[in-house]
Amino acid sequence: MTAKLRTISVLVFTLVFFVACASETPEPATPTPLPPTATLASPTATPTAIPPTPTAPPTSAPTQAFTLATSIEDIIGTWHSSRKNLYLRFYGNGTLHQSHSLDSLDYQPYAISEIWFEGTQMYLKEKAVSGVPSCGDTPGIYEVRLFPDGKIQIVRIKEKCSPRAGDTALQYDPVR
């Protein structure tokens, strides 16, 4: 009797399954057109996912407004870059001191440079260095961006001396 009961149960289950499947008529699948660059893969090829189509254009991060310095008067003062823990001091006589500490800016900077502006380009020419590679007599050319929040960013325009560029082309906060 157990075998008969099992057979009847399997038949009832199969009948219910077919009736349930037959009562639902699936909608015909709408073929999805392939993008113009897509190609059909051979059966042995590894399938690759088609990247999703963006629904909105990507947005870029807003660019902070700035003005460009045109004279030493625009940047006179002491500046600090927390990125490399560097200090700069621009003097009204067209001199720049660079140091790793605020205390040594006036009397023991590792670099002293002459600076001048031609339009919006700042020229930086080495006068003396101590403990860092010398850049010689060739000046580097930079631009100084002045931001509304009081920060500056020195941007490399033309510079053959990588060590000087690495210690100069940074963003700086004013030291008060």
Describe this entry's structure for a reader:
- It is a single chain.
- With 176 residues, the chain is α+β, with helices and mostly antiparallel strands.
- It has a domain at 67-174.
- The chain has two helices and nine strands.
- Strand 2 (77-81) and strand 3 form a beta hairpin.
- It is elongated, with a radius of gyration of 35 Å.
What is the structure about, briefly put?
The protein has 2 helices and 9 strands.
Radius of gyration equals 35 Å
Report the portion of residues in β strands.
Answer: 25-35%
* Number of H/I helices: 2
Largest sheet: 8 strands, antiparallel, barrel
- SSE pattern, N- to C-terminal: HEEEEEEEEHE
Short descriptors:
single chain; 176 residues; alpha+beta; 8-stranded antiparallel barrel; 2 helices; 9 strands; elongated
